[in-house]
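[Discussion] Sanity-checking designs against the backbone

I'm trying to build intuition for which residues belong where. Below is a structure token string of 202 positions. I'd appreciate it if someone posts a full sequence so I can compare it with mine line by line.
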């Protein structure tokens, strides 16, 4: 089994954090899909990372599929609750955090286009999604210790990877000042080795 990922992707980081928390040994192959010589399309027809290559040569892609697979292959540190309603709540947190990251990445990519080809309306629309998504994450978290209550789960990992990417690519956003409860959660997550050892880097 090996993981193909970039070192900046929040979705790849989510998988890397899960691997660390589950104590699953998995070699990492660094590959940036935007590069002309990227091998990612050979493993994922959508040309996206992360991709998990299994021992039989088959592949799993989309971080949500990969982390669910990993949580079931090892009984160590279950990150998705067994009870169905709790599972749905954790997956909802994950979808919201990934959605915020999706919108922020859309802004990042749009700003890489030539200035005269950028769409301010598109950027503003995506920024609205980021702002609304962060507000929803903060409101749902409230004063709880962890996203889904009193237990650390995949919900916290997904939110932490989203917030970490925003801090990495959009430091001017200053979500910490607007949402101090998210800042407290992130401070706690950053103390975990799984987060400390997977910081995004160029």
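Best answer:
Here's mine. Compare freely.
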């Amino acid at each position: 089994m090996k993981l193909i990922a970039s070192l900046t992707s929040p979705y790849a980081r989510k998988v890397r954090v899960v691997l660390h928390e589950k104590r699953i040994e998995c070699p990492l192959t660094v590959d940036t899909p935007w590069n002309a010589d990227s091998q990612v399309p050979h493993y994922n027809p959508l040309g996206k990372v992360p991709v998990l290559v299994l021992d039989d040569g088959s592949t799993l892609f989309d971080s949500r599929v990969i982390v669910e697979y990993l949580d079931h292959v090892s009984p160590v540190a279950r990150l998705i609750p067994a009870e169905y309603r709790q599972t749905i709540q954790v997956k909802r947190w994950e979808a919201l955090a990934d959605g915020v990251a999706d919108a922020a990445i859309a802004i990042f990519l749009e700003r890489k286009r030539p200035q005269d080809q950028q769409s301010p309306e598109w950027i503003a629309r995506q920024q609205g999604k980021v702002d609304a998504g962060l507000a929803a994450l903060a409101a749902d978290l409230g004063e709880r210790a962890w996203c889904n209550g009193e237990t650390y789960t995949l919900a916290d990992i997904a939110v932490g990877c989203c917030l970490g990417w925003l801090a990495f690519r959009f430091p001017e956003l200053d979500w910490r000042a607007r949402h101090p409860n998210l800042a407290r959660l992130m401070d706690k997550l950053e103390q975990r080795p799984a987060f400390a050892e997977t910081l995004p880097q160029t």
